[in-house]
C-alpha cells in the first residue's frame, strides 16, 4: 500500500511534519534502490537486436553499449564483469550484456590481434565504426530513436551487405560472418522488396562495385542469389546465350561479359571504362535464338538496351556517352587496321575525337578489355589502341589556317578539311 500511517502527536504539528518527512525520504531512498541501474547510464541497444527489429523479428538476445562510463561505475551500480578481452558486464537483474564503448587497433595477425581501448571519451560512433557491416552498425536509444551513421537501415531494405570501413579486412572471421548473413537474407530476393529500390540507390551501389578491386564478383553474387534478373535483367539474360567460335567458358555471352569486366578492372581504375565494358554486349541478349550463335547487328540492338538501362538507373552523362560509343563501335575498333580512311574518319568524328581527344583513351581501354576477355586470361597486345591514337595524332597535326583566307564558303571549307584528313589517313 502507498498509504503512510503516521503516529499521533496531538497538537505538535511541527514534530508530526518532521516524522512525515522522514517517512517520505525513506520511501524515496527505497524506490531509488529498486530502479533499473541502466537508467543511470548512457546506453544504447546495438547489433543484431536492432537489425532484427527492423526486419520485424523479435530478438531475445539484447546487447547494449555504454558511453561515458568506466569499469568502476559499472561495478558500483551492481553490474558483474564477464569479459576477458574487453569490458563486458551483466545486468544485475536482466543479465543482459552491457559493454563499454570501445575502439580497436590492429596489432597482430588473426582475429585476436587487436588492442582494445575502452575509455570514457569513446563515442557511440567510434564503437559502431569498428563493426563489420552496416546492418550491424546501428543503435537504438532507450527512448527508441534509431542511430544509423552508415546507412544500415537502407542497406537492410536493399539486401546489401556492405562493410563499414576498410578495417573490415583486419578480421578474417568477418568473411564467414558475411557469408552467414548472405545465407540468412537471400530470401529477401523473392519477397518483391528488391523491386522497390530507388534508381539512385541502385546506381550508387553499382558505381561502388565497379570501383572495387574485383567488380565482377558483385554480379556473380547477385546472380547466385537470383537478384541479378531483378535489378539488372539486361545482364542476366546474357547467361546461357552462346557465342560463335569461342570455347567454354567464353562461349557464353554472360560469362564473357564478366571476363571483359575483369580485364577492364586490370586495365583501368576508371569506373566509366568498367561500366562501358560491362554493357558493351547487351545487344546479344536480344538476338533471336534461331540466329544463335551468331549475333549480327548486336551493336545496334544494344544501343536501345544501354539507353534504357541508363535512363532507368539515371546513369551520369559521361558514363552513358562512353557506354554507347563502345557498344556501337567496339567491333569496328577490333578491325581498325582493315578499315578504309573514310570509315576511320567517320569513327573519329563519332567519338568526338577532334574536340575531346582525351576520350579516345577510355574508348580504347574498354575495347581492349573486350578483346582480352577470353577464358584463357590472355593478355595479348591490342594494336588497335596504338593505331587509333596514331590516326588521331596524324590528323590533328594538320593546319587549316590557310583556309580562312582562301575558302570563304563554310561548306567548301568543310569539304577541304575532310579531303586533307582523308589523305593523312591513307
Describe the structure.
With 426 residues, the protein is of the alpha+beta class. Helices cover 48% and strands 8% of the residues. It is built from 19 helices and nine strands. The strands form two sheets. It has a seven-stranded mixed β-sheet with strand order 3-4-5-2-1-8-9. Strand 3 and strand 4 (88-90) form a beta hairpin. The longest helix has 22 residues, at 13-34. The model is unreliable at 1-7 (pLDDT under 50).
Judging from the principal axes of the Cα atoms, what is the shape?
elongated
How far apart, in Å, are the first and last alpha carbons? Answer: 107 Å
Number of distinct helices? 19
Major sheet: 7 strands, mixed
Class based on secondary structure composition and strand pairing: alpha+beta
Q: Give me the strand/helix succession.
A: HEHEHEEEEEHEEHHHHHHHHHHHHHHH
Uncertain parts: 1-7
The order of strands across the largest sheet is 3-4-5-2-1-8-9
Strand coverage percent: 5-15%
Oligomeric state of this protein: single chain
Overall pLDDT metric = 84
How many beta strands in the DSSP annotation? 9
Radius of gyration: 33 Å
**Helical content, roughly?**
40-55%
Amino acid at each position: 500500500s502507498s498509504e503512510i500511517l503516521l503516529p499521533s502527536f496531538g497538537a505538535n504539528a511541527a514534530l508530526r511534519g518532521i516524522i512525515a518527512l522522514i517517512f517520505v525520504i525513506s520511501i524515496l531512498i527505497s524506490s531509488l534502490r529498486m530502479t533499473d541501474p541502466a537508467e543511470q547510464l548512457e546506453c544504447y541497444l546495438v547489433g543484431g537486436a536492432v537489425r532484427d527489429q527492423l526486419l520485424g523479428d523479435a530478438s531475445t538476445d539484447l546487447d547494449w553499449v555504454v558511453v561515458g562510463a568506466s569499469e568502476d561505475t559499472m561495478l558500483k551500480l551492481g553490474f558483474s564483469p564477464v569479459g576477458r578481452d574487453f569490458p563486458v558486464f551483466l545486468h544485475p537483474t536482466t543479465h543482459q550484456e552491457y559493454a563499454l564503448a570501445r575502439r580497436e587497433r590492429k596489432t597482430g595477425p588473426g582475429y585476436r590481434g587487436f588492442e582494445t581501448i575502452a575509455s570514457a571519451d569513446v563515442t557511440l560512433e567510434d564503437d559502431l565504426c569498428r563493426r563489420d557491416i552496416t546492418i550491424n552498425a546501428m543503435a537504438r536509444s532507450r527512448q527508441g530513436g534509431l542511430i544509423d551513421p552508415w546507412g544500415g537501415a537502407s542497406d537492410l531494405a536493399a539486401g546489401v551487405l556492405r562493410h563499414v570501413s576498410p578495417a573490415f579486412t583486419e578480421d578474417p572471421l568477418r568473411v564467414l560472418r558475411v557469408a552467414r548473413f548472405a545465407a540468412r537474407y537471400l530470401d529477401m530476393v523473392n519477397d518483391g522488396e528488391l523491386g522497390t529500390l530507388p534508381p539512385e540507390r541502385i546506381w550508387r551501389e553499382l558505381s561502388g562495385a565497379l570501383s572495387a578491386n574485383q567488380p565482377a564478383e558483385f554480379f556473380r553474387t547477385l546472380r547466385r542469389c537470383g537478384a541479378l534478373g531483378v535489378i539488372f535483367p539486361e545482364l542476366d539474360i546474357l547467361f546461357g546465350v552462346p557465342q560463335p567460335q569461342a570455347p567454354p567458358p567464353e562461349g557464353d555471352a554472360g560469362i564473357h561479359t564478366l571476363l571483359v569486366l575483369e580485364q577492364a578492372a586490370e586495365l583501368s581504375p576508371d569506373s566509366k571504362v568498367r561500366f562501358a565494358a560491362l554493357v558493351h554486349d547487351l545487344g546479344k541478349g536480344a538476338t533471336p535464338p534461331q540466329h544463335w550463335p551468331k549475333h549480327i547487328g548486336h551493336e545496334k540492338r544494344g544501343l536501345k538496351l544501354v539507353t534504357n538501362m541508363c535512363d532507368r538507373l539515371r546513369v551520369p552523362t559521361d558514363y552513358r556517352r562512353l557506354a554507347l560509343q563502345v557498344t556501337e563501335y567496339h567491333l569496328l575498333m577490333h578491325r581498325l587496321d582493315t578499315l578504309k580512311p573514310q570509315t576511320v574518319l567517320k569513327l573519329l568524328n563519332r567519338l568526338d575525337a577532334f574536340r575531346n581527344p582525351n576520350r579516345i583513351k577510355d574508348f580504347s581501354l574498354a575495347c581492349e578489355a573486350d578483346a582480352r576477355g577470353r577464358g584463357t586470361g590472355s593478355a595479348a597486345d591490342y594494336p588497335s589502341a596504338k593505331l587509333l591514337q596514331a590516326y588521331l595524332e596524324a590528323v590533328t597535326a594538320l593546319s587549316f589556317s590557310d583556309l580562312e583566307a582562301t575558302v570563304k564558303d563554310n561548306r567548301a571549307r568543310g569539304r577541304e578539311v575532310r579531303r586533307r584528313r582523308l589523305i593523312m589517313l591513307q
